[in-house]
Amino acid sequence: MSKLGIAIVGTGMIGAVHRRAALLAGAVIRGVGASSPERAKEVAQSWDVPRAYRDIEEVVADPQVQVVHVCTPNHLHRPMAQAALQAGKHVVCEKPLATTLEDATALASLAASTGLVATVPFVYRYHPVVREARARIAQGELGPLRLIHGSYLQDWLLDPASNNWRVDPALGGASRVFADIGSHWCDLVEWVGGERFVDVSAVFETVIAERGATAGQSFTTPAAGGAMQAVSSEDVAAAMFKTASGTLASLTVSQVSAGRKNRLWFEIDGARASVAFDQEDCERLWIGLPDQREEVFVRGPGAGSAEQRRLSVFPAGHAQGYGNCFEAFVADTYRAIAAERPEGLPTFDDGLRSALIVDRVIASAKSRAWTPIG
Ligand code: SOE
Fold first, then answer.
1. Phi, psi of 51, rounded to the nearest 5 degrees
2. Domain of life here (predicted)?
């Protein structure tokens, strides 16, 4: 069988992550598109790929490309993904799927009408012990859910000198921290816990009023000094949710919490047991039990649920992490293109679900009122 030809549009931090995962999954990168034709040429050379596309029209006109990976700033997701789908290409589009609910709705219905594979990298679903938690909840081990809680904390925007396209609502969208990382948490706990949020009450705060005017790559901080500019997007947020079954959930998100690099943490408490997962300690699932007991389930191919074993590509004790999640997600996307049905593959429908939650969270933060999701 001939190798899948792909194009990567957007060559920042996350474009490089897509590249690694695509190569490992056996695809051939036919070309790259970037913020300028010059930058595309530079990256095509350093990645050793044949084509540097001038614009999206050139990408979608390339007959060697079957899949387009959209890794651009958020405001370009809709036009890029739409052009690719309309040209008959499968699409992997970064989250948030779009910066407005309207755009996300349009993309999800276009994807459905074409029958093409269209996925969104909610990649934390691919931690093997996350799948273990999901399987245990689905089997009823926790009993009825009583409480869902957690946080997603980063510190890469702690320094007022740091700035990034995500901070600018014209490029990143009306919500920053919630749409960027709160979206991952919501996707994860809804998927793991099997309950959907129906109401939200949220609060946003911008705690750094001015930032350095020079935008850098994600997770980098330029030297202090130089011009500053006002910030309007939120640095921190808190949200309470209610699920359709009445379970209360609470979430704290931040990109200014010193020492927290990428700490997505959740706990789901049921009537018989609890489970807790920490993305920065992702080889272990904590299981809380009654009668002064607790357990730790350790990732590995030798025990646990079928999906936990499938995604455990290394033996126990040989640490897996974020990169492996991304690799598994991209490999599963390509399996779906080959007409397989991998479990838990996040699609444009999940991207749309996330856009709906973000839209309602923004509405609640503005109105300061409990707001229905749906
Ligand atoms: C930046 O906050 C970021 O790269 C997010 O955009 C990703 O989705 C998350 O996985 C890590 O942090």
1. -120, 140
2. Bacteria
Is residue 187 within 6 Å of ligand 1 at its C-beta?
Answer: no
* The model's pTM: 0.97
In order of start, what are the domains of the chain with their CATH numbers?
A: 5-119 (3.40.50.720), 125-316+348-372 (3.30.360.10)
Identify which of 248, 142, 163 has the alpha carbon closest to the alpha carbon of residue 209. Answer: 163
- What is the number of the ligand 1 atom nearest to the C-alpha of 322? 10
Ligand 1 probe mutation, 218, 261, 279, most atoms within 8 A of CB: 218
The token pair that represents 200 in the structure block: 């939200």
152 CA to middle of ligand 1, Å?
Answer: 10
pLDDT range class, residue 138, cuts 50, 70, 90: very high
Atom of ligand 1 nearest to the CA of 180: 6
- Helix H or strand E segment including 208: none
Cα 11 from chain centroid (whole Å)? 17
Dihedral sign, Cα of residue 199, residue 99, residue 219, residue 125: positive
Residues 287, 269: Cα–Cα separation, whole Å:
10
Q: Is the CB of 355 under 6 A from ligand 1?
A: no
3-state secondary structure of 181: helix
Alpha carbon of 154 to ligand 1 centroid (Å): 9
pLDDT tens sequence across 252-261: 999 999 999 9
Q: What is the phi-psi region of residue 368: left when phi exceeds 0, alpha when psi lies from -120 to 50, beta otherwise? A: left
Atom of ligand 1 nearest to the CA of 218: 1
| Element spanning 199, H or E | strand 197-205
d(CA 363, CA 48): 45
Q: What is the pLDDT of residues 297-321, one digit of tens each?
A: 999 999 999 999 999 999 999 999 9
- In 3D, which of 250, 95, 226, 117 has the Cα closest to residue 173? 95
Identify whether the C-beta of residue 251 lies closer than 8 Å to the C-beta of residue 153: no
Q: Which is nearest to 281 in space by CA: 293, 294, 269, 264? A: 264
Band the pLDDT of 374: cuts 50, 70, 90. Answer: confident
Tell me the CA–centroid distance for residue 267 and ligand 1, in Å. Answer: 20
